[in-house]
C-alpha cells in the first residue's frame, strides 16, 4: 500500500472526526412489541449514545462515520449488538426488540410446599430473627416452625409434626447435609428441643411436601438449615439465663472467621423455685461445646466447618396407672456432630458442592431394673454440581453415600443386636423456564439400601405459574420413600421402605409487607410398619400399614397495617387416618389434631426500647384409645390444646438484650393423652393417668451481652 | 523514507487519539455531572445513570463512571417511589465493578457503606442486627483508607446518630464526627476547580447531623 496514501487517509480521518455529524434514530421494544423506555444505546467504544424515551424512541448525534456497532443495554434484558454503517445525516434504524433475561429476581419460583426464612428471598414467610422472637418457641427452631402452616404442636413431644406424619418423617439438614438425632433424647412427657442454636443459621428452607429430589429419607417434610457465612467482626457473647449460661467468642477478618462456644444448663435451681408436675430425681441438665469456622477459598469458594459435642441427662419418677408404685427412669445422652462443606463457582456456569457430615448419638436408659444402651451413627457424603445451560435451563446432579450403624445392648443380660446399613443415592433435577412466568421442574432420585436389599426410584415434578404481579399458583407431586426407624429395623432387618405420594396445590400472594398463602394437599401412605403388642415391646413387625392425609392450610402475615407491629395467623386443617404401629385399623394418629390455629403478634415500643410478643396456639385435641369405652382403637379425644405465651425483649444498650418469656400464661391444664393400666381394677375399670405438662407454665429470663472491641469504633476515637 | 512516513502516520494517529481521550473523558463526565444536578424524577435519574454507564463502557479503566452510576441509583432509591431493594442491589453491583477497577479506594468503600445504610433503612428491625455492623465496618475501612474523605466520616456520623437515637445515648459522638467531616469538606472545597470530577457530595447530610447538636 502506498504510504503517502495512508498518511492522507489518516489526516482525512482526523478531519471527518472533527466535522461530520450523523444522527442515529430508532425505537426499542420489548418481546411483546411494547415500547421500552430507559434502555441505554451506545456506539461501541465511543461516548456517543442516549437513553430511550417513554415511547421507546431514541435519537442522538455522533461524529462517527462508517462501520460501527450499536449496543443496546438494559438491566434485566439481554444485551444486543447491531452492526451499522453510519453516513452523514440521518440514520434510521429498524425497531430493536430486547429479550428479557430470566433471573432469580424477576421470575416465578416454585412455592408449593415450600416456606423460606431468610432476609433476601422474595417469598419469605419467616425471617431468621422470628425464630428467636416468637414467644411460644422459647428460642427453639422447631418452636417457631410450629406456628407455620401444615404443622401441629404436640406439647409433650416438642418435635416437628407435619401434615399427619410422625416426627421421624421430617428430614433435617444443615448446609445440605443430613443430621442424625437432631433432637435431644428425652424421657416421659418432657418435651425435647433441637440441639442446634438458632444463631448458627442465616436462613432456613422448610418444606411440608413435594420437595426437591435433593432430599430423601423423609416421608413428610424437609427442613434445610443454612449456616452463616463469614462473621463480620470479632466479638464475645455472654448469656446468663434462668436455666444456665454460656459464652461464645468469635474471631474474624475478611478471609476467615471462627466461633467457639460453651454452654451449660441445669433446670434444677429453677425447679427448686417453681413447682413441677413431674417428680424429677435429677432435673434435665447438660453442657455443650461447639466450634464453627468459615474461610474464603479462592475467588468464589467458601469452606465451612462445624463440630459440636454435648452431654446431658435427666432422671424422673414415672407413675404407673392403677398402682401406688412408681418407676425411676434415668437417661444419659452423649452426642457429637461434625461437618465440613465447600462450595465454589467454576467456569462455564458450573457450581459445585462437596460435603461430609458425621453424627454419633449414645443413649443410656435405665427403666426400673432394665438397662439399655443405644448407639446410632450416621456418616453422610455428598457432592452436587449445578450447571446453568442458559437463563432458561439449569440442571442439578448429585451423588450421596450414607453409612449408618446402629446397635442396642441390654446391659444385665449382655445381649447386643444391631445392623450397619449402607445407602447410596443418585439424583438429578432440571428446571426449565418457558418464560419468566412459567417454570417446570422435574426430578428423579434413585436409592439403594444394603440392609433392606432393595432399590427404588422417586420421580418428582412441579410447576409454578405467575398469575399476576403479586400472585402465583404452583403444583407439586412426587414419590417419597423412607426406611423405618432404627428401633424397628433392628428387630426385623427385612423391613422395607415406607412409601408416600404427595399432590399439592399452592397459591401465594405477596406484596410489600403482606403475605397470604393457601395450600391444599393429598398424601397417601403405604408400607407403614405395623406390629403386635405395645410400642415398648413390638412383635411381628411388617410393612403392613397404609393410610392418607388430606387438608388445607392458610397463612396470613401483615407487617404494614399497624405501625411497628408484625403479626401472622395460621390455620391448618388435617384429616389423616392410617394403620401403623400397634393400630390394626385406620385411625387418626394422636399427633395429627384436625384443627390447628396459631397467632403470633410482635409489637415494638420505641420509647421503651422494647419488643413485646404474644403467641397463641390452639388445636382441637389429641386422639387416644380409651379401653373403658369399647374395643375400638383411638376412640376418644382429649380436650382442646391452648397455649398463650408472652415475651418481652428489652434493649437498653446496643450490646445488651434482656429477654423475659412465659409460656401458657393462663395456666391451662393441657392433656396430650392418657396412659391406662393393662388390667381392670376391682370395679372393672382400666385406671388412667393423664399425659400432661411438665409444669403449668415455663418462665424464662435471659441476659445476653455482646462484648466487642469494635475496631471501627476504636479507630474513630483516634481520629 | 517509507518507514518514516509510516512512523509519522502512526504517531499522528496516536497523538490525535491520545490527546482526544483525556479531555473527551473529562468533558463527558462533566456533562453528566451537570445533568446529575438537575435530576427531579426517576426517568431523569435513569438517563444520567445510563450516561455514566456509556462512559464506563468506553473508558474501561476508569472507576468514576461506575461510582457515579451507583451513587445515582442509591440516591434514586432514597428519593423516588421505585423498587428500593432492587435498585439498591443494582447500585451495589455497580459499586463492586468500580471496586474491581480501583481496589482499596476510600470513596467506593464509603459508597458501599452508604448503600448498606439504604438497605437497613428499608427493614431496620430484621436487618439492623446483621447489617449495621457490616455498614460500620465498611465506613470504618473507608476512613482508614483516606482520612481526608469527608463522606466516610459524615456517613459514619449518621450511623452513630441513628444508634444514639435508638438507644437513647447522647449524640456527642455523632456530633463530633459530623463537625470533623465539615472541616474536611472545607479542605476539599479548596481543591475543586473547573476540571474536578471526583466526588464532592454529602455536605448537607453532615450539616443535618450537626443541626441536631447543641
UniProtKB/TrEMBL annotation, chain A:
Ranges of residues in domain TonB-dependent receptor plug: 139-217
**Keyword Signal included in the entry's annotation:** yes
InterPro entries named in the record: CarboxyPept-like_regulatory, Plug_dom, TonB-dep_rcpt-like
* UniProt superkingdom: Bacteria
Molecular functions per Gene Ontology: siderophore uptake transmembrane transporter activity
Kindly state one GO CC term assigned in the UniProt record.
cell outer membrane
> What biological process terms from GO does the record include?
siderophore transmembrane transport
* Keywords attached to this entry: Receptor, Signal
Signal peptide boundaries: 1-20
Keyword match Signal = yes
What is the protein named? TonB-dependent receptor-like protein
From TrEMBL, chain B:
The alphabetized UniProt keywords are: Signal
Q: Would you say which domain of life the source belongs to?
A: Bacteria
Q: Where is the signal peptide?
A: 1-20
| Xref: SUPFAM superfamilies | TPR-like
Query: Per its UniProt record, what InterPro entries does this chain match?
Result: TPR-like_helical_dom_sf
> What's the protein called, per UniProt?
Tetratricopeptide repeat protein
Instruction: Give the organism, scientific name.
Output: Algoriphagus yeomjeoni
Amino acid at each position: 500500500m502506498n504510504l503517502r496514501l495512508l498518511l492522507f487517509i489518516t489526516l482525512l480521518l482526523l478531519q471527518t472526526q472533527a466535522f461530520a455529524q450523523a444522527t442515529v434514530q430508532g425505537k426499542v421494544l420489548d418481546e411483546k412489541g411494547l415500547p421500552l423506555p430507559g434502555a441505554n444505546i451506545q456506539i461501541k467504544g465511543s461516548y456517543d449514545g442516549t437513553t430511550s424515551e417513554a415511547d421507546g424512541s431514541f435519537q442522538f448525534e455522533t461524529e462517527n462515520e462508517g462501520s460501527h456497532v450499536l449496543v443496546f443495554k438494559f438491566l434485566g434484558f439481554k444485551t444486543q449488538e447491531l452492526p451499522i454503517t453510519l453516513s452523514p445525516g440521518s440514520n434510521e434504524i429498524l425497531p430493536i426488540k430486547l429479550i428479557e433475561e430470566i433471573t432469580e429476581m424477576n421470575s416465578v419460583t416454585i412455592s408449593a410446599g415450600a416456606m423460606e426464612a431468610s432476609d433476601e428471598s422474595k417469598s419469605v414467610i419467616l425471617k431468621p430473627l422470628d425464630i428467636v422472637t416468637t414467644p411460644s418457641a422459647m428460642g427453639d427452631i422447631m418452636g417457631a416452625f410450629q406456628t407455620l402452616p401444615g404443622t401441629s404442636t404436640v406439647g409433650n413431644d416438642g418435635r416437628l409434626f407435619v401434615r399427619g406424619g410422625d416426627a421421624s418423617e421430617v428430614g433435617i439438614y444443615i448446609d445440605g447435609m443430613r443430621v442424625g438425632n437432631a433432637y435431644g433424647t428425652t424421657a416421659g412427657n418432657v418435651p425435647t428441643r433441637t440441639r442446634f442454636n438458632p444463631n448458627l443459621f442465616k436462613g432456613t428452607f422448610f418444606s411440608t411436601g413435594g420437595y426437591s429430589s435433593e432430599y430423601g429419607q423423609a416421608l413428610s417434610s424437609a427442613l434445610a438449615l443454612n449456616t452463616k457465612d463469614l462473621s463480620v467482626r470479632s466479638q464475645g457473647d455472654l448469656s446468663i439465663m434462668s436455666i444456665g449460661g454460656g459464652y461464645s467468642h468469635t474471631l474474624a477478618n475478611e478471609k476467615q472467621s471462627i466461633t467457639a462456644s460453651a454452654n451449660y444448663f441445669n433446670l434444677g435451681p429453677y425447679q427448686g423455685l417453681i413447682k413441677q408436675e413431674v417428680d424429677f430425681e435429677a432435673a434435665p441438665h447438660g453442657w455443650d461445646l461447639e466450634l464453627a469456622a468459615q474461610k474464603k477459598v479462592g475467588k468464589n469458594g467458601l469452606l465451612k466447618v462445624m463440630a459440636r459435642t454435648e452431654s446431658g441427662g435427666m432422671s424422673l419418677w414415672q407413675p404407673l396407672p392403677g398402682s401406688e408404685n412408681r418407676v425411676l427412669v434415668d437417661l444419659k445422652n452423649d452426642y457429637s456432630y461434625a461437618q465440613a462443606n465447600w462450595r465454589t463457582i467454576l467456569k462455564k456456569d458450573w457450581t459445585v458442592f462437596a460435603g461430609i457430615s458425621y453424627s454419633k448419638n449414645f443413649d443410656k436408659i435405665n427403666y426400673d431394673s432394665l438397662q439399655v444402651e443405644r448407639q446410632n451413627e450416621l456418616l453422610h457424603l455428598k457432592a452436587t454440581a449445578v450447571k446453568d445451560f442458559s437463563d432458561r435451563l439449569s440442571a442439578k446432579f448429585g451423588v450421596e453415600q450414607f453409612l449408618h450403624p446402629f446397635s442396642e445392648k441390654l446391659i444385665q443380660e449382655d445381649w447386643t443386636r444391631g445392623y450397619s446399613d449402607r445407602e447410596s443415592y443418585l439424583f438429578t433435577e432440571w428446571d426449565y423456564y418457558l418464560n419468566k412466568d412459567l417454570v417446570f421442574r422435574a426430578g428423579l432420585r434413585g436409592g439403594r439400601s444394603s440392609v433392606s436389599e432393595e432399590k427404588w426410584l422417586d420421580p418428582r415434578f412441579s410447576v409454578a405459574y405467575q398469575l399476576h404481579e403479586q400472585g402465583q399458583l404452583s403444583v407439586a407431586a412426587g414419590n417419597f420413600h423412607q426406611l423405618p426407624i432404627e428401633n424397628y429395623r433392628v428387630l426385623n432387618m427385612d423391613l422395607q421402605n415406607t412409601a408416600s405420594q404427595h399432590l399439592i396445590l399452592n397459591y401465594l400472594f405477596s406484596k410489600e409487607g403482606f403475605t397470604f398463602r393457601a395450600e391444599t394437599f393429598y398424601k397417601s401412605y403405604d408400607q407403614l410398619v405395623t406390629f403386635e403388642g405395645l410400642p415398648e415391646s413390638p412383635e411381628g413387625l411388617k410393612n403392613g400399614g397404609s393410610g392418607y392425609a388430606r387438608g388445607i392450610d392458610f397463612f396470613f402475615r401483615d407487617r404494614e397495617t399497624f405501625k411497628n407491629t408484625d403479626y401472622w395467623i395460621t390455620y391448618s386443617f388435617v384429616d389423616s387416618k392410617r394403620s401403623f404401629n400397634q393400630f390394626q385399623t385406620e385411625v387418626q394418629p394422636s399427633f395429627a389434631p384436625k384443627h390447628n390455629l396459631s397467632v403470633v403478634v410482635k409489637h415494638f415500643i420505641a420509647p421503651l426500647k422494647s419488643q413485646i410478643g404474644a403467641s397463641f396456639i390452639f388445636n382441637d385435641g389429641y386422639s387416644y384409645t380409651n379401653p373403658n369405652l369399647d374395643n375400638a382403637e383411638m376412640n376418644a379425644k382429649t380436650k382442646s390444646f391452648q397455649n398463650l405465651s408472652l415475651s418481652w425483649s428489652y434493649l437498653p444498650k446496643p450490646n445488651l438484650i434482656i429477654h423475659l418469656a412465659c409460656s401458657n400464661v393462663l395456666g391451662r391444664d393441657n392433656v396430650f393423652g392418657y396412659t391406662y393400666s393393662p388390667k381392670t381394677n376391682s370395679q372393672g375399670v382400666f385406671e388412667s393417668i393423664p399425659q400432661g405438662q411438665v409444669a403449668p407454665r415455663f418462665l424464662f429470663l435471659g441476659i445476653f451481652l455482646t462484648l466487642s472491641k469494635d475496631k471501627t469504633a476504636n479507630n474513630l476515637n483516634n481520629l | 523514507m517509507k518507514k518514516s512516513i509510516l512512523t509519522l502516520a502512526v504517531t499522528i494517529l496516536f497523538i490525535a487519539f491520545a490527546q482526544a481521550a483525556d479531555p473527551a473523558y473529562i468533558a463527558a463526565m462533566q456533562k453528566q455531572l451537570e445533568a446529575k444536578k438537575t435530576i427531579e424524577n426517576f426517568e431523569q435519574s435513569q438517563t444520567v445513570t445510563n450516561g455514566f454507564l456509556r462512559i464506563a463502557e468506553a473508558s474501561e479503566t476508569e472507576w468514576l463512571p461506575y461510582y457515579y452510576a451507583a451513587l445515582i441509583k442509591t440516591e434514586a432509591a432514597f428519593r423516588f417511589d421505585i423498587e428500593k431493594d432492587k435498585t439498591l442491589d443494582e447500585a451495589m453491583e455497580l459499586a463492586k465493578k468500580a471496586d474491581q477497577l480501583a481496589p482499596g479506594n476510600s470513596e467506593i468503600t464509603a459508597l458501599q457503606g452508604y448503600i448498606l445504610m439504604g438497605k437497613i433503612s428499608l427493614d431496620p428491625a430484621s436487618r439492623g442486627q446483621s447489617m449495621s455492623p457490616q455498614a460500620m465496618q465498611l465506613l470504618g475501612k473507608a476512613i482508614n483508607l483516606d482520612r481526608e474523605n469527608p463522606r466516610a466520616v459524615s456517613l459514619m456520623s449518621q450511623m452513630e446518630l441513628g444508634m444514639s437515637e435508638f438507644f437513647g445515648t447522647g449524640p456527642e459522638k455523632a456530633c463530633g464526627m459530623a463537625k470533623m467531616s465539615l472541616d474536611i469538606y472545607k479542605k476539599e472545597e479548596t481543591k475543586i476547580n473547573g476540571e474536578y470530577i471526583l466526588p464532592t457530595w454529602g455536605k448537607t447530610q453532615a450539616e443535618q447531623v450537626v443541626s441536631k447538636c447543641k
